[in-house]
Structure formats: structure tokens, C-alpha cells
Amino acid sequence: MTQDLVLCLNTVCSKAEGRDKLARFFQYMCRALLGFISFSAPTAGSRMFKLEEVARTSMTNLTAARRTHRWFKEVPVIQSIPKSLALEDPVDRVLEVLTKTLLAAFFIIDHIGLLKQWKILPGGKRAGSGTIQLGLKVFCLSNVFGIIFQMKKFFALAAKEEKSPEEMTCLKLATKHLLLIIQTAHMSLLWKSHDALVGIAGMITSAMDVHGQLPLKARPSPPAAVAPPKAAPEAEAATPALTESGVKVKSS
């Protein structure tokens, strides 16, 4: 059990995507903690107030670290768009292309926002935080098209007589898109909810992403059938046989 846990952790942390999603889990855990602490309205100098400061600092630093290592994540998304253009269903084609195009646009806008925070690019009317919030609005829209696409696929599969395991996959992805809409709508100030809700939603989607990075365990192969030992010729001759009527007779 301990060896399996260490193997899973090592596999996740050996990949950049795995490290990012693991950091994202703790980032949103800190946001959820901030949300729950806000219900108690902590006073200055109290333990809850100090815990709030630690959670906020951790969340801010994890967010900045993840944004720094997010460069060029739009490249594989852009490379997958031609495959989406080859889909036969025109509605599926439009929905998937819009989802991926907006996702790539989010990454690019996020890079621009980071460069503005670093003072490499001028802020203009939109400072770094304003540009990042614009990118989150675009990401929110991407997830809106994503959930429509997954639910369309789910209902098309559900209408068939033969059940497909892909139905559950579509539901999981649709749920993930819904949770991401809640997160991005709040952080982009498009629709503010609460840090506790957003934090829990972020932890769930992060856990789903981390699960996708885990190694697939090799299933043990079924044991080979062992043939019964062959009886000696003398024993075969002495063994009574069953006739079709069920009466035991001796072999001649």
C-alpha cells in the first residue's frame, strides 16, 4: 500500500502537468479555507486571523508559480484544432473548435497579463490583473461551449440501444466544465459567488486532473487452467463408466 502510494506520487510529480495540478489542488484548498474562515469574521491577532494570512499568502504564491510555468500550454491545444475541424457533425465541429480556440486564447491573454505584472508590457487601460480577469472570462466561455458539446454527445449516446462507457466519460467532463464555469466566473468577477464554493469546486476539478495523471495499474492475468492428472492405464480400465442411462458399467 505504501509502495503504491509512493509510486503514484512519484509518477504525478515527475510530469509538469502532474505537478501543476497538484499545486492547483492546494491553491484551491487555500481558497476554500479563506472562504470558511470568512464566516467567522476573525479579529486581528487571533489564531483564525493568522491562519487566514497564511492561507492567502500560500494561495497567491501558488497562483503566481503556476502562471509562470504556464507558457506554451496553448501549443498542443492549437495543434489539436485541425483534428476537430475533421469532425463529420457540423455542430460538433463548431462546438469543439470554439472550445479549443477560446482555451488557446485564454492562455495567450494570461501570458500578456503576466508580462504586464512584470512591467515588461505597459499596463494601459487594463493592468495585469485586469488582463488576467479578461482571460478568465474567455476561459469561462470556453467551458460553456465545452459543457454543451459534452451533453450533446451524452444524449446522442444515451439514445442508442447499446450502452457505451463513453456516456459516463461525457458526464464527468460535463461536470468538470460546470465546476470550471463556477470558478472562472467568480475569479473574473463575471459572477461572484463565494470563496468556499469556488475552493471546493477547484479542489474537485484538480483531483480529477491529478487522477488522470496516475499510472494505470497492470491487471493481474487470470491463472492458467491446470489440466487434471492423467490416470494410469490400469486405473482407467478399473474405473467404472457411465452409460447414457446413468448406470455404472465397467469398461471392457
Description:
This protein is mostly helical. It has helices at 2-13, 16-38, 47-68, 74-79, 81-85, 90-117, 128-158, 166-187, 195-212, 233-238, and strands spanning 240-242, 248-250. Strands 1-2 form a two-stranded antiparallel ribbon.
Ordered list of secondary-structure elements with their pairings:
Layout: H1 2-13, H2 16-38, H3 47-68, H4 74-79, H5 81-85, H6 90-117, H7 128-158, H8 166-187, H9 195-212, H10 233-238, E1 240-242, E2 248-250
Antiparallel strand pairs: 1-2
Indicate the proportion of strand residues. under 5%
Q: Measured on Cα atoms, how large is the radius of gyration? A: 29 Å
SSE string, helices as H and strands as E: HHHHHHHHHHEE
What's the helix count?
10
Record field, number of beta strands: 2
> Which residue ranges are poorly predicted, with pLDDT under 50 across at least 5 consecutive positions?
218-228, 232-252
> How helix-rich are the residues, as a percent range?
55-70%
Q: How do the strands of the widest beta sheet line up side by side?
A: 1-2
Q: What is the typical, i.e. mean, pLDDT?
A: 86
What class would the helix/strand composition place it in? mainly alpha
The coarse silhouette is globular
- Straight-line N-to-C gap: 60 Å
Largest sheet: 2 strands, antiparallel
